[in-house]
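Quick one, probably user error.
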């Protein structure tokens, strides 16, 4: 099926540079000549492979959410929980916002992605189009950045290390299933070739003239990659029915507003405690930084560096990079556009990993509830921090990286 795509015109999502789809060796990947963004991979039998992996992921997901996850044994008492317990514990402790966020990003959104992909892939492997194919694909595409199985797993590993000194940690079958789910889920996403998937619809690329390219009459659908001629201000993609836009409307202004909101939230997030550890009736609240220092004092340097990078370095780095990119766009800078695009790509990749602290707080609050012996309670700082992380993720999505290259193209045209 990939052979039918040869010669089709595709556009890079990050710089809008046009390319011809070419057959590349098995296992190879094609990158944009301008910005270096990944265009596509050559995965043999992509649809059938993805279907098998997503079906396996669904089985592992059911196991991970059905059987015991982790148990804590201390003083003859055993506290057992399932994967759902982290979000539920936050809700019971009066922090329903965090409970909903944990449930959505670690359970519901990954489930919707897996089931949605199976709904699309089963008919596709039979050469048919699923009903409301475009709507389902848009939903899956929107939820992918928020399906944080890998981040949750990192939070679990950090929690296990922290709990080793407190009590005996018992691994449940759900933990093994979650680890396998992460591997299979990642492989399924890497195996899926959207160009091959959309080829079953019969919509082929347009015959685009140089004049149309020069006049910027081409609209690139960021959902399915289909190219359309610009004819209307409120145009939709003929293949997946997604709204089309030459550039994200008010991208710079929206991103600035979100960044400022994130800065405001990060101040109380680092002042107020994110959790309190109580042992034998005594304990003191821990902020993000004091928690890192406590890990260092306990000799857990590696764990301390992970928490420090995820909770402090990454949020500050995202704010700094996005602010720099916004200023460079507003100043119409043509300085190293490829490197600036790479910086933007970094913010998309690492941004969600700051959620590891929220998952960790939820996991520890659910497990360590042994009354007078030992208890861990979330602090109000966790709400502010979660809000800042979510807003910075929205900020990265609202920034249109193609604006970086618009200034370069304008200068080239003047020359």
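Nope, works fine. Designed sequence:
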């Amino acid at each position: 099926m990939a052979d039918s795509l040869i010669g089709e015109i595709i556009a890079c999502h990050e710089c809008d540079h046009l390319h011809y789809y070419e057959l590349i060796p098995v296992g190879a990947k094609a990158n944009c000549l301008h910005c270096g963004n990944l265009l596509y991979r050559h995965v043999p039998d992509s649809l059938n492979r993805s279907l098998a992996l997503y079906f396996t992921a669904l089985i592992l997901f059911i196991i991970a959410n059905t059987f015991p996850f982790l148990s804590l044994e201390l003083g003859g008492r055993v506290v057992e929980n399932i994967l759902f317990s982290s979000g539920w514990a936050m809700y019971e402790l009066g922090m329903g916002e965090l409970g909903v966020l944990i449930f959505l990003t670690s359970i519901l959104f990954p489930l919707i992605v897996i089931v949605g992909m199976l709904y699309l892939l089963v008919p596709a492997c039979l050469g048919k189009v699923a009903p409301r194919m475009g709507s389902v694909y848009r939903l899956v595409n929107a939820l992918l950045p928020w399906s944080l199985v890998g981040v949750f797993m990192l939070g679990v590993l950090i929690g296990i290390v922290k709990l080793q000194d407190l009590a005996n940690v018992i691994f449940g079958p759900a933990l093994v299933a979650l680890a396998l789910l992460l591997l299979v889920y990642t492989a399924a996403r890497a195996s899926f070739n959207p160009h091959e998937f959309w080829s079953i619809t019969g919509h082929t690329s347009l015959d685009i003239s140089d004049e149309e390219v020069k006049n910027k009459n081409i609209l690139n659908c960021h959902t399915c990659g289909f190219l359309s001629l610009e004819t209307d201000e409120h145009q939709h993609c003929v293949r997946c029915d997604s709204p089309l836009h030459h550039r994200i409307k008010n991208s710079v202004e929206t991103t600035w507003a979100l960044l400022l909101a994130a800065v405001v939230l990060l101040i109380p997030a680092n002042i107020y405690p994110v959790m309190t550890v109580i042992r034998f009736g005594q304990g003191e609240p821990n902020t993000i930084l004091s928690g890192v220092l406590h890990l260092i004092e306990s000799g857990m340097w590696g764990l301390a560096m992970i928490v420090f990078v995820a909770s402090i370095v990454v949020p500050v780095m995202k704010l700094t990079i996005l602010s720099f990119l916004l200023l460079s766009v507003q100043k119409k800078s043509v300085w190293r556009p490829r490197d600036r695009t790479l910086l933007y790509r970094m913010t998309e990749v690492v941004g969600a990993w700051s959620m590891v602290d929220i998952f960790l707080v939820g996991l520890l609050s659910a497990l360590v509830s042994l009354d007078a012996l030992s208890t861990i309670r979330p602090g109000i700082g966790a709400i502010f921090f979660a809000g800042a992380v979510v807003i910075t993720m929205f900020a990265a999505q609202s920034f249109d990286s193609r604006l970086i290259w618009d200034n370069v193209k304008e200068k080239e045209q003047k020359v």
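The chain has a mean pLDDT of 88.
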